[in-house]
Amino acid sequence: MAGERSANLCTCCTSFITSTGLIIIFLWLTLRTQQPKCFIQSLYLPSLNKTITSNHKHSKNNNTIIFNLKVTNTNKDKGVLYDTVRLTFSLFLDANTTRPLANTTLEPFYQGHGRTTEKWSSAEAHGGGVNRTVNGSVFLRVDFATRVNYKIMLFYTKRHRLSGGANVEVNVSTGEKVDPKGIRLGNTPPRVGSEAAPVRNRWIALSTFLVSLCFYLTY
Ligand SMILES: *[C@@H]1O[C@H](CO)[C@@H](O)[C@H](O)[C@H]1NC(C)=O
Ligand SMILES: *[C@@H]1O[C@H](CO)[C@@H](O)[C@H](O)[C@H]1NC(C)=O
Ligand SMILES: *[C@@H]1O[C@H](CO)[C@@H](O)[C@H](O)[C@H]1NC(C)=O
Ligand SMILES: *[C@@H]1O[C@H](CO)[C@@H](O)[C@H](O)[C@H]1NC(C)=O
Ligand SMILES: *[C@@H]1O[C@H](CO)[C@@H](O)[C@H](O)[C@H]1NC(C)=O
Ligand SMILES: *[C@@H]1O[C@H](CO)[C@@H](O)[C@H](O)[C@H]1NC(C)=O
Ligand SMILES: *[C@@H]1O[C@H](CO)[C@@H](O)[C@H](O)[C@H]1NC(C)=O
């Protein structure tokens, strides 16, 4: 009798633990979110287009920056509501130094599951010609910052900060972005010709993990 009861208790206990575990895994899968990715697809500086400037003198003073921003929501079952997207453009004066050029904003927008959005916009550069070259090209620093709410079924999560930046090489005689592919606005440092940064970030992540592990084992 006693054995049977403890066996029942044991079965009950096991199923309780199993279902709790399943609920936790289900909630984790439902609530887990991935940050959207932002790319500069195109960037064009009409003032550097030699074909225009040789024909029309006035366009030399055109300090417009024309760009296309691509935003990808990689969440397959969650929408994303973007707050105003603030973009800043700076010009590299040398490999380490930048000068602010322009700010612009994009209106808030909503993006459905797994969607990609491309937005054309422009900004007016201030403070003189955008023709300083570093290593033979004009380099711009592009940064963005916004806040996002994820939509899970019918509910919105609290706001999360989303930001990033990248260095964009522009051809000094055509005014077009050199790399035809989109450039991810991620955690690239504002320095021309630095490839070491992602490796260093990986080291920081690894050492943070090891320090946490030590704390965990000690206490
Ligand atoms: C540069 O200017 C020429 C002449 O106006 C034009 O045909 C060409 O499309 C321009 N380049 C870009 C990248 O827009
Ligand atoms: C600069 O050039 C672009 C593209 O050619 C044009 O859309 C824009 O109106 C021009 N801006 C000024 C101030 O001339
Ligand atoms: C950029 O910074 C690095 C490291 O701080 C330095 O070694 C290098 O000389 C700097 N380059 C320029 C052009 O200022
Ligand atoms: C861009 O905005 C920042 C702060 O919002 C400001 O400090 C900076 O002067 C602005 N730059 C230009 C070129 O408008
Ligand atoms: C850059 O632009 C300034 C002002 O528009 C001009 O005086 C200078 O000659 C230009 N430099 C080059 C290398 O084109
Ligand atoms: C800039 O464009 C010209 C003409 O298309 C090309 O000959 C040159 O190689 C380009 N420069 C860079 C750095 O891509
Ligand atoms: C300058 O350009 C050369 C050839 O494109 C490249 O090998 C070198 O890494 C560049 N230097 C910097 C600081 O970007």
CATH topology of the largest domain: Immunoglobulin-like
* Rg (C-alpha, Å): 25 Å
Helix content: 25-40%
- Give the number of helices: 3
How many strands appear in the DSSP assignment? Answer: 11
The CATH architecture classification of the largest domain is: Sandwich
Overall geometric form: elongated
Bound small-molecule species: 2-acetamido-2-deoxy-beta-D-glucopyranose
What sequence of helices (H) and strands (E) makes up the elements? HEHEEEEEEEEEEH
pLDDT average, as an integer? 86
Q: Which range does the strand content fall in?
A: 35-45%
The low-confidence parts are none
Distance between the termini: 43 Å
Query: What's the main sheet like?
Result: 7 strands, antiparallel
Structural class: alpha+beta
Organism: Pisum sativum
Transmembrane segments: 7-31
Protein name: Protein NDR1-like
Subcellular location: Membrane
Descriptive report:
With 219 residues, the protein is an alpha+beta fold. The chain is 26% helix and 37% strand. The strands form two sheets. Strands 3, 4, 5, 6, 8, 9 and 10 form a seven-stranded antiparallel sheet that branches. It is elongated, with a radius of gyration of 25 Å. The two termini are 43 Å apart. Residues 136-137, 171, 173-174, 178 line the site of one 2-acetamido-2-deoxy-beta-D-glucopyranose (NAG).
Question: Helices and strands in order, then pairings?
Answer:
Blueprint: H1 2-31, E1 37-44, H2 50-55, E2 64-72, E3 78-82, E4 85-92, E5 98-106, E6 109-111, E7 116-124, E8 138-152, E9 155-156, E10 160-170, E11 183-184, H3 197-218
Antiparallel strand pairs: 1-2, 1-11, 2-7, 3-6, 3-8, 4-5, 4-8, 8-9, 8-10
The chain binds 2-acetamido-2-deoxy-beta-D-glucopyranose (NAG) (7 copies).
